[in-house]
Every structure is written in C-alpha cells, then in structure tokens.
Design goal:
- The strands form 3 sheets. A two-stranded antiparallel ribbon has the order 1-4.
- The chain is mainly alpha-helical.
- It has 12 helices and 6 strands.
- It has helices at about 60-65, 75-80, 90-100, 110-115, 135-150, 160-170, 180-210, 215-230, 240, 260-275, 285-295, 305-330, and strands at about 85, 110, 155, 180, 235, 280.
Amino acid sequence: MFRPTLFLTVACLAVPAMAQTPPTQAWPQNRPPAQAAPPAAAPGQPAAPPAAGATPPAAGSPLASAAPVPLPQWFVDIDVDKKGEVTRAEFLKYRMKSFEALDLNKDNKLSVEEFVKVVEPPATPADAPGLPPLEERRNRAKAEFQTLDTNRDGFLERGEAEAVVHSEFNNYDTDRDNKVTEPEVRLIIQRSMQREAAERQQVEARRRQGMMTLNEFMDMQLRQSDELDKNKDTKISGPEYVVLAGPADGPQAKNLLPFDMRKQIAMRKFAEIDTNKDGQIERVELSAYALKQFGEMDLNKDRFISEEEFKKAQEAEAAKIRAIVQTMMPAQPAQPRPAQPQPRGGQPAPAQPSGPPPGLPQGTR
C-alpha cells in the first residue's frame, strides 16, 4: 500500500557505570584511577620525580578557580588538625585498621575465611543501598583475595596488604613528596569524576543510538516536504501532495488499491495537515503537525522515538487506513435465498422433523 501518512516513513531505528568512587574507610576498597606515574616509593626511600601532567593545578588556573571538589571521607578523618595534608604514615595507619580488625588471631596475616568477613556485617552494613547479595559479595571477596595473595601461600600477609595501601597512596601523591595535600586529592578525584561523566555520556550515547529526537524528526519531515515541493515555493499544494498516493496505473500499481481510493486517502491526510484550509501545506503547519505526531509516537515521554515506538505508530496508522478503506468499499448487495423446491401436485413440502432421530432415547445424539 502507499505511504499512509506524509512522513511516517522514518528509517528503521535501532534501540539499544559502575562509577569509580573515592576510597572509603573499608579495606580493600575501590582505588582511584591509576595515574601515569613512576613505581611506588617505599617509605623513607628517595621520591621518584613527578609524572608529567600530574601536578596540582596552579593558582589562577581553571581547575583551581572552579568550585572545590569535596574531599573524600578518609582525608577528613585523617586530617583532624586541618593541616590540609595527609602523610604516607598516617594514610597507612588509617587504611590498615580494617586489616587489624579482621586479623582476629593477631598473626599479621589473613586467611581467606578472615578476609571474607570484610563484606559481612558489621564490617559491611547489611542495609547499605544497592548492596549485592551476601553470597555474591563473598565470592567477589574470595576473588580479590586471590589477587592480593601475591606469593600464593593461601594467606594475605601484612606486607602484601601494605603494598596495596602504598600503591593507593601513590595514586594521590602526584609530586612524590610522601604526603597528599588537598589540591592533589581534589585534582585526582576531579579527574576521576570527569572520566566517569564521559563514560556515562558514552553509555547514554550508545543507548540512544538509533533513537530519534524531536529536532531530528522535524528536520526529516521538512526534508521530505522539500522533495514534494516541485515549484520550490516552500508550500505543498494538493497536486504535489497526491504524489504520495503512488502511480495511477502500470506495473507499479499492481496489487495496490484503486488509484481513486488511494488519492482520497492521501487527500484526507492533506486536509488534516492543512489546518488553515487554504489548499496548501505551509512549513509552519507542517512543523505543528510533526510536533503533534512526535508527541503521539513518544509513548514513554522520554523525548525520543525508539524502534518499538515507531513500529507501534506504523501499526496504528495501518489500522486507521484499513478502517478508512472499509468505509470506502461499495456495499455488497444482499444475496437472495434459494427457493424451496415444491413437491409435485402443488402440495406443500412436509415439515422436516426436529430433535433426535426416531427410535433414539431422549437426550442422546
């Protein structure tokens, strides 16, 4: 059948993070993104030169003048005297509190059974929002244990745990002076937040891929109207619009409705768009119609048209066209009933008996 509406010929659309969080008091924890920095320097060893591009923002720079990034809770907890800095020793002591709490027999190493307690109450509150099931948390902790047990002896020794903490500290200590200042930690967290925002935008862009916005929908409508506007007067006349009805005859008209019927259906749609009834569709009328059509197609009101919504709009339009076609079909004349055969001699035919055949009990068939 010909295209049922002026512009319901949209190409098929394809429908389709775990954000890194600043470290918390629990150990092990999500670590900040690794920086392009030299290997960790052990306490007391000469500090390696700072990584290129990893220095805190200079005074007066855009990063420095922007609204300050909130400090992570661990920095606030450690910097109780408000010096604006946390030393490596302070950070190590703070982070190892969890290790010491899990090391119940105080042998300076954790078995996998001890380590798994970090994801169980009271170390991890049971009512924390978005928390995975307990068994899933335990399995993740066991996998983390295998990663941290670098010498593969089945225990997480204190030295192995401290190596993780030193590595985390180095991610914040960008100038390698064995202390983390407020500008350093704010810069790292800001970069992490910016990267997370970019990742969320990429995820959203992938999700929106193949979905159509209102502006895209209206632009498509106007481009298609330009194709119909043969005399380029920015208006579509009835004769220009009726092209949508398809060919009147020839091979391409085969299996289509009669041309007169298709033409009538097309002109009904023309009259619907031509709101001022001047016999022409102007761009302002077309834009208003596109806005109305988009609102009807956008079923979930998310300001996008998905493939599913478009298919439903096509189905609804096809049903509307079928109903119109039914009203345009000529009424079929009533078929006369065949005459009953008359017996010879002009006597009326005996009435046919009703009910069960003679000789059968009542209620049987």
